[in-house]
Design goal:
The complex is a heterodimer of chains A (317) and B (81). By secondary structure, chain A is α+β, with helices and mostly antiparallel strands. Chain A is built from 9 helices and 7 strands, in the order ααββαβααβαβββααα. Classes of the chains: A alpha+beta (317), B alpha+beta (81).
């Protein structure tokens, strides 16, 4: 509505939902000179540019809040389903440790094994990858993180794959692909890995901004896969190379809900990976674990604009 | 549902569609499903590679192939031994 003093009063559309935390925080920390009635409604904004900014800020905060609300409401039921699956198949929390031989070879779950030469090769290369990770890759990722306070690196404690898990992967691949340990390890992209976590509304633009920031740091993007349409795993995973050492690393891009879903389904995924029996019971268990993952992923809010993020390289290249 | 088997060529950065890194078969039946790869031990054994791919792993791609093509990959693995 027009006012006699030439100012324009803008009614910013309000949701019936409680005001999102993000909106409160943004208001508390953002510039407020033009906010004539910050506590009252409607807000009266004098600057057209500021009006547009406020409109988008408020719209985004509602998107974020509604997404978080829907996901948070679904989590208790999903946790209950997982508890039933655990009880049905007798899962326990104890970790299994496999007795190691004294000849330098390695033994893992499900009969996996590396001979002493393969095991030594993996140990040596793993130490080298960690060194490059600590010295170059992780500081680069931290520097990218510092460029934008609206998102952050999550799960930083898991920035290096565990050595036993890596050896399991190497053993599986040597059996299937028949290559030496060093070549096998060179193909595994996620020994060093990191995860950026965003608000739903900022996700799509934020991912592409961070891809550009990583490139500006000199990292080479090798691959990007958008799996937001998948029923088993939602997110964007990318593979990068540090140019000097040629060590590859993985960067995942998640929303809070997609990251929590990944954590909620992690034990199911671990169990799927560890099943080695070729029995009808194991087949049924696998199907039920996949169905659980499907159910969890069906509840994750899809960030606006995410379908526009293409895979890299494009299919056929 | 009758048993249904889908074969896949496994392709990574060191292989190609013409020369895949390996072969995987997914068997679906009324009671569930099972993935197996044909390995250097010359057996079909349970494998998590396709599940890893379905859960975001970037190492491998899986291209559906005919049973005849899968047989040719199996024969090549046997020859290499």
């Amino acid at each position: 509505m027009d006012r006699p003093d030439g100012m324009v009063a803008v009614s910013v559309e309000r949701s019936e939902l409680p005001e999102p935390t993000d909106a409160r925080r943004d208001r508390d920390t953002g510039p407020s000179a033009d906010r004539v009635a910050d506590q009252g409604r409607p807000l009266v904004l004098t600057d057209p540019e500021r009006r547009v900014t406020e409109h988008f800020r408020y719209r985004d905060s509602v998107v974020n809040h509604e997404a978080a609300h829907a996901w948070d409401a679904a989590v208790p039921e999903l946790q209950g389903i997982w508890e039933k699956i655990k009880a049905k198949f007798g899962y326990t929390e104890r970790s299994v440790s496999v007795a190691q031989p004294t000849d330098g070879s390695w033994r893992g779950e499900g009969g996996r094994k590396l001979d002493s030469a393969q095991n030594a090769e993996v140990d040596r290369r793993y130490a080298r990858i960690r060194e490059v990770g600590e010295r170059t890759i992780i500081p680069g990722l931290r520097a990218v993180e510092a460029e934008d306070p609206t998102r952050h690196l999550a799960g930083f404690d898991h920035r290096f794959k565990g050595l036993d898990r890596l050896k399991e992967k190497v053993a599986d691949r040597i059996r299937t692909k028949g290559r030496p340990a060093a070549e096998t390890l060179a193909q595994i992209p996620d020994v060093v890995r990191a995860t950026f976590q965003y608000n739903e509304s900022a996700y799509s633009a934020g991912v592409m901004n961070d891809v550009q920031r990583l490139q500006a740091k000199g990292f080479i993007q090798v691959e990007r896969r958008n799996t937001w349409e998948s029923d088993q795993y939602k997110g964007i995973n990318t593979r990068w190379q540090e140019p000097e050492s040629r060590v590859t690393f993985e960067v995942q891009f998640h929303t809070r809900a997609s990251l929590e879903a990944k954590e909620l389904t992690h034990k199911a995924y671990e169990r799927m990976r560890s099943i080695t029996e070729q029995t009808p019971e194991a087949d049924q268990e696998t199907s039920e674990l996949k169905e659980f993952q499907r159910r969890v992923n069906s509840m994750i809010p899809i960030p606006p604009g995410v379908a526009d993020i293409d895979d890299y390289p494009p299919e056929g290249h | 549902m009758a048993e249904e088997i889908t074969y896949y060529a496994i392709i990574d950065n060191a292989s190609s569609r013409e020369h895949p890194a390996g072969v995987l078969r997914r068997t679906r039946h009324d009671g569930g499903e099972r993935d197996e790869t044909f390995g250097t031990d010359l057996k079909w054994a349970r494998s998590a590679l396709l599940y890893e791919h379905e859960n975001g792993d970037l190492e491998n791609k899986f291209v559906p192939i005919s049973e005849e093509e899968a047989d040719r990959i199996v024969a090549r693995i046997r020859q290499r031994r």
